[in-house]
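I am still getting used to backbone structure tokens and would like to learn alongside you. Would you supply a protein for us yourself, any chain you care to pick? Start from the sequence, derive the backbone structure tokens from it, and show both lines together. Go ahead whenever you are ready, and we will take it from there.
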Amino acid sequence: VQLQESGGGSVQAGGSLRLSCTASGLSYSQYSMNWFRQAPGKEREGVACISSRGITDYADSIEGRFTISRDNAKNTMYLQMNNLKPEDTGTYYCASSAGCWRPFSAGTYPLWGQGTQVHRLL
């Protein structure tokens, strides 16, 4: 049972990246899926959640720049990030949960990926 992120890298401020999270060994479609991020020297924070039914929720800091989606046939979740800002730098993690939580910190996340890095933006 694991989650694997991919798609990180470096990009100019104002640019775009699409992160992916692929699940294996679990009944993927039954779970809500989440993106978290952790910037250097800062606490991990929730970014976005998508429920098993496809209902989405975003952190206020995202300001409409990111879009979370999922493809249950591929056991994969995505995070399309547009208009990237320097403060978006960090390691992005995906995590499963029984539902979407507000605040994100109130939830329980039994399975995490190892993370993919969005490097210091140029």
